[in-house]
Design goal:
four-stranded antiparallel sheet; alpha/beta; Aspartate Aminotransferase, domain 2; seven-stranded mixed sheet
Length: 543
Amino acid sequence: MAIKVRLVAPKVADVVMYAIVRRAVVIVEAAAVGAVADERAEVVRLLGVARLDEQTGARARLRALLFIAAPAHDDVARVMRAAVSSPRRHISGRREDASTRARASTTTPRAFGRTLRALFRGMGGASSSATGVGSKLPGETFDRCVYLDYNATTPIWPEVASAMAPFLFEHFGNPSSGHALATPCRDAVDGARASVSAMLACDASEVMFTSCGSESDNFAIDGAVRAFKTRASGRTPKVVSTAVEHPAVIEHLKAKEAFGELTYELVNVDTEGLVSVDDVMKAVDDDTCLVTVMHANNETGAIQPVAEIAAAARARGVLTHTDAAQSCGKVPVKQDELGVDMITIVGHKIGAPKGVGALYIREGTDLGDAKPFYGGGQEAGRRAGTENVLHIVGLGKACEIVEREMDTCPKHLKAMRDELQTRLVDALGGADGSGVRINGPSDDAKRLPNTLNIGIKGLLASITLMELGDLLAASAGAACHTPDAGAAGGATVSSVLEAMDVPMEYAIGTLRLSVGRHTTREDVEKGAALLIDAARRQNAGAV
């Protein structure tokens, strides 16, 4: 990329310097999170939209992104230090004297441009793109390790990191303050709330930001309990849920019951991991204050009949909640279609940072005076504490991307999942197919497009994943504690597999493989090959 700077008219020099600084931002983003754009097109675009009043902000973005990139990218850090510290020339309309030129000789835009060109060459081709569905994220981690654990967490998407960057340093104000520095942060929180509401098809006022999915789940339960106790003093409220819920629900129910605040009933699932609407409603009685059923299971990908359950519960006057942490970004999650009163979403499951989530609360839903925290009047008085602007911005951007890519991303996820499943089944299923077992719904429409829960005979899943170490990231359905995992006490099987009555010979060899937005066919091929080789070695007695 040939960036040429002529020290001519002040405004021209400023515009070009701004373009260079902005291009440096792109480079640092690329090094930090893998977002590399076509260099010539990007520079043309930047030159076309450059505004002199944004240069200060661009430099602030550089400082923020330098903070991200410096530990792992020494060459980037070196270039960025030069960019941040380099004096602007001819910005005041005054000529430079000799001493000024001498001081600036090592950090002129021309020298900076040469350094940028060298950095581009060292990055191995800046014309590739690492954004969008099906693109591989660059970096040593993704080159070394096949990541098939997207249900556990996702990498921060490049576009999300870019949106967050200005809020590390440049925009630091408290969104509740009344001065000008608060305005960008307040506007950003409002914009993120609008993006979340657009994804959920609800009103922005119905979205409450939280710290995580666990907080959202806990508050949904606590609010329903508090409201019931206010209405029915002296009676103990009951919560109905399922045996395959996330610990954020089940462990909270256990704790609250131990304190005498509620009772609960967990409805079992069938062998495919699906709950029956009739079974759920049989558990509902006059003391039931809430039915909470996850939208999709984190282990099997089973999509529960939440809409049907919500309709039946509403007819009984019972509040409903669903944890949609796993379904967001993979299938549509719309409040008007689900019909529930509350929905949990989680940032780090959809390309946003860890430490941020949201809870949809239908307008008019009675949650008593329950609050997760007490203090200030943030989040319309529902949740005290200064908003985590940086992470909220990330969540909003991620929701915007989810909504935009809902027609394309699920198709990619399904293609990658199906390819992975086909390779494993064909290689390890055997003549009669009994070598493997797919744990989850047989109806593909009732399973998340990205999730493969597969039990492999003769495989010790947890040990396999430990042995593969840095080569493959996935989750096991059972933890093996002895070499003879089939012996009594030799393995601890997940509660989900237990509820589904998965035979032990498959349970101990169960892997949860989950693909994501940035999974490639190369990842699938390499991951499948590693697992096939491990299974064959173990079945041959090599372990």
